[in-house]
Amino acid sequence: MIPDDLRYTAEHEWVRPSGGTVRVGITDFAQDSLGDIVFVELPEPGRTVTAGESVGELESTKSVSDLYAPVAGTVTARNEALSDAPDLVNRDPYGEGWMVEIELADPSVVAGLLDAAAYEKITSQG
Amino acid sequence: MTDDLLRSPLHEKHQALGAKFAAFGGWQMPLEYAGGGVIAEHTAVREAVGVFDVSHLGKATVRGPGAAEFVNRCLANDLDRIGAGQAQYTLCCDDATGGVVDDLIAYRYADDHVFLIPNAANTAEVCRRLAAVAPAGITVTDQHREYAIVAVQGPRSGALLDRLGVPTDHGYMSFVDATVDGHPVVVCRTGYTGEHGYELVIASQYAPPVWDALLAQGADLGVRPAGLAARDTLRTEMGYPLHGQDLSMEISPVQARAGWAVGWKKPEFWGRAKLVAEKEAGPARRLWGLSASGRGIPRPGMAVYVGDTQVGRVTSGTFSPTLKRGIALALLDTAAGLAEDAEVEVDVRGRRSPMTVVKPPFVTPSVK
Lengths: 126, 368
Description:
Chain A has helices at 28-34, 81-84, 88-91, 116-124, and strands at residues 7-8, 13-18, 21-26, 37-41, 48-49, 54-60, 64-68, 73-78, 100-104. Chain A is of the alpha+beta class. Chain A binds chain B through residues 35-36, 38-39, 41, 59-62, 64, 87, 90, and chain B through 20, 32, 37-40, 229, 233, 295, 297, 318-319, 321, 324, 349.
């Protein structure tokens, strides 16, 4: 259920490293907790972000939650498809439902994020 | 906390369907189902048929000589507008303040027999208030756990119930006795979704087979079990008030545009003096609809502004799955002089979201 080739945060985000850049999304656990997502607001490419900073919003029919930058760096891309099809986050959270790509300020921080086993412990503790 | 919540007789059915649960008026009820979700469930009700468990709703019987006349002296709507076999939306107001203790449906069986469906959290209080003044010979019985209620709603609701051999062609807001596989049910042409629909009142022990039959028989009609999250988006699109949000002890029927459910010509009902006075003077605030122009989704409690002046607050707000934008019910100060098409702003987490004042419903109802 939790892909083991990704890194995770305690805020239920996933990080897929690729060279000096990471792709970021929210986990299946997170989309299931939110329910049907109807609006996604993402940061503009070019924005500099710090780890833990709120950079966007995910709004479902019943609630809103922040999207946090899992790592520091510069936003290089955002998933424009979510503007018209926010339900991609529910349907394919680890694939088509990705949110942003961030060029890492310091590539070594990825190793400090949670691995799949550590993240699974968080979700199973409820 | 969860252990203190009451459970529907259909609880195990919901568990088997992968429901997410939430507390409603002291009951643990399904919010949405696995493989569905609020938008799919909402859409099924608008376009096909949805089946809701609303067993948390209260049930109470008022019986004895003159029971209907007694209820009519207490509750706000005029029960003499309907005859035996018909149901009516009515209000239980506080006599001293005119505030709304509860909104409820009254089934008129006979002059000596009225069945009430209050909201879950208010059932005991409605029963207490009625019992406290009931004349000798009239009994008020709280039957909250004796019955389940299953709402079958949507354009194909009639087709689905036809397959169960249940009568479906009776008029809007009327009810008939029927059986499903030999189990007695009361079938009422009511609902809270704005669609053609029925509410089935079933003795609790017979609810599971009736629920199973509805889902099994409705498969090719596109039936979905629908949770209370979809019920809320459906009713908000209709502008139907929810007690505790849009109607309450602090929000009178005059303010909430529920005056149509008040029998103004009756000589007596709880809260009459206060409500007549408020109606004549004009309410200080009134419930309006707000329709978002942009991406903001209004939520209960958010402040409504014109410029720097707060002119009201949101009482119910959500994303409308039908319109695909934010909608709200909001109490707006009469002094602000706002009317249909006025532009206002809602403070959505520190950002001003433009919204237009509208008269609900947001979506055209097709209940008849």
